[in-house]
Amino acid sequence: MYDIKALYEAASVEEAIALLQAHPQAQIIAGGSDVLVQIREGRRAGVELVSIYGIDAMRGVTCDDDGTIRIGSLTSFSHIAGSPIIREKIAVLGEAVSLVGGPQIRNIGTIGGNTCNGVTSADSASTLMAWDAIVELKGPEGVRRLPIQDFYIKAGVVDLRPAELQTAIIIPRQAWEGYHGHYIKYAMREAMDIANLGCSVNVRLSGDKRVIEDARIAYGVAGPVPMRAPSAEALAKGRPVSAATVKAFAKAVLDDIHPRDSWRGSKVFREHIGVEMAKRALAKSIELAGGALDG
What we know:
3 domains, five-stranded antiparallel beta sheet, 35% helix, alpha+beta, globular, Uridine Diphospho-n-acetylenolpyruvylglucosamine Reductase, domain 3
């Protein structure tokens, strides 16, 4: 049923790197919720695997003294959703990963696997982009950290060098403090389905809750990789909290998103719901931040 040539199990990050160096054709497997399906379908027949699932040092959610949130790449979706740190500081990420698959998938699937797959429909990816997340990678040359926007190269391809693995997702304090966010997923079914379009927005309001000091918006399935909408972000910054601002913000996303036609939905349809999702997500984020729209 599973055509696997060899399986090597790593007990530490260093051992995983050494195994990847010794077996350069091997592929990493964590929870296996995607890899095993691909092997069963014959897309990775005869593969060599390096399992990193036993590396407990790559699990868990922590918040450092300086406010930096660190999410180990082997942390499951269920663990993220239930983390007190996530619930208190970036609740929208827990909400987003709670929409991945069903309970079994959320228990075994990992944040690292979801982002390293490079797919534009990953529910965690657009939300992490909206939080200016940083990807931590470790390989033979040491540790690299890069913005998650730079981690995605093209559809299905991420910036992982030979014998390198993703060890954590990092969200600096300045990226989350004072922000509130909301994620919307549109799919053909309400559960157990990949996103037809995903939209994540977060916002920081002025002290009197009347001005949008900053807004970030990111999409999944609006292009070949998860992407931000900088035109909409620039338009909202410094604008008053109002229904007119929300409407203009939503319309501006059309300057940046590039959805395609597929059997799940047409380009025109995705553009239409992309505008509507931006409007609803920003309005909800403003509400969560303590603001109120006129009209």
